[in-house]
Design brief:
heterodimer, A: mainly alpha, three-stranded antiparallel β-sheet, two-stranded antiparallel ribbon, 5 strands, B: mainly alpha, Rna Polymerase Sigma Factor, Chain: A, Arc Repressor Mutant, subunit A
Amino acid sequence: MNRINKNNIEAWLLDYSEGQLNEQELALLEAFLEENPEYRELLSDFEPVYLPVDEDIVFSKKEALLKPSAGGRILHFSFVFPRLMAAAAVLAAIVLLWPQFRNNKESVEIRASLTSPEIHLPNTPHVANEQGIKRKEGKNKKKENTVTRETERLASREQVQETKESKKEKEREAPFTAERLQKDMSASIAQNPGYYHYSDIPGWYGSKPVAMKDVLPVQNRETSSPNLMQSLLRSEMARAFIPESLEENLPQAEIQNKESGPVIYLKVPPAGKKIIDKFLNR
Amino acid sequence: MTREEYNRCVRQYADNVYRFVLKNIRHEADAEDIVQNSFEILWKKHEEVNFEKAKSYLFMVARNNMIDQIRKRKRAGITDDESKADRMVKNEYTGAGEALDYALKQLPEKQREAILLRDYEGYSYQEIGEITGLSESQVKVYIFRARRALQKILVNPENVL
């Protein structure tokens, strides 16, 4: 320690009160106090006060400070949901309305061929007189049959072509697995920072299959509504075109306040478990 | 420092930093903001900060944030609740913890910081010096003065510094 002077005497006195001085240092201090008795007063009635640690004071927002592991992603529901739901709605609309649209298109063509064959028979001449019309009607009946057959043939060809296309599309599409779901989700949420960590949802978004239980604990990164979590799962199931994803089979979410912070639990009904197992090819 | 080490820092030190800041500025919302900001800064610098030094780094950042906050509050003319001080002088405090809190509040800023780091966090005088930018000897001086002052205030609340 440095030589004792009036600037550091209190540091020496602190060490003295804590029993940190060796014999040589004690002798130095004693000599200084002999020469400067006014400082001896500082020790005369000194009874150091130590502060007890107040364990009751804790930081309640620790979970929000944590950073997810490298494989995980974080969702900001308020930002992601409108997009997810909008995308799901558009997709659902297309899927639901496409067959109707195609049927309408075909039926319009067929009706047109029956009522105004000229439209589809460009080389048919116009007839001015009744005889011509009657004669033409006879011919038209034959042609109507021809047009109908032709339309049916075209429709059949379109159906075949459509089937081929859908097959090709299905071939292009990888089988649905947990990895694929995670990849898809990672792509969709990569630019959206937020508070939920996908890898914290066992069996759903983690790359490692986790034994499915009736209740799946999900660590919540920030206080949020369980309805949001539930909606996310629903939209994901809808996005994956799972026909069995009926209302009653969807997971239910509820929030519980634990000592470590709020935790979301997903309750998966038995039928829901089957769907999830199917998702994960188990 | 890795991501896992950073998360370990959050779990191990968030309460300590929060306690340290709250005991100094006595304002929960501000203390929470300071803790969050400190960890954000730690995360930004996590590749440069060693895990072993992370706790000291956190306290240093929190302390700097705290000083800024205190200055802002002073500029804005915001003062602490004076009624508590009045009650203390009138010996209306019943709990020892409350009395100690009051006594701590009366200490000058540097003394309070130093004694909190020493007693709450168990830092060595050298470490406190690194966090506060003081020499080891200066830290000891401040802590000696703080202990004497606490003793005086607790014996007689009218001995406010």
